[in-house]
Amino acid sequence: MLLTLDLHDPRPLHEQVAEAIRRAVAEGSYAPGDRLPPARDMAAALGVNANTVLRALRELRDEGVLEFRRGRGVSILSRPDPRSVIEEKLRALLAEAVQYGYRHDDVIELIRELS
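Predicted structure:
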């Protein structure tokens, strides 16, 4: 699993980790039943605290994307709803646009121009 975080992203790191895992599952890098690497390994690869990764994993468990099994680790339970993946990306886009001084209407107009 190749996950990356954007240190300039204003969102908390655990949200970025959860989004990266959600995206990997939605894109098919992981299928239901596949096991994730241990949280410590993911944390080391991302350069964050293991508790940050664990918080993201718990969030995904609560969404029904992951399943925790004692002695077996964390595995993919289901693919996330595609709409929720798109909504997460749009929230990130809108937050970044606001940082550059764009209003939501400006972003909508840009999307219309590109489609």
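Summary: The chain has two domains: 1-80, 81-115.
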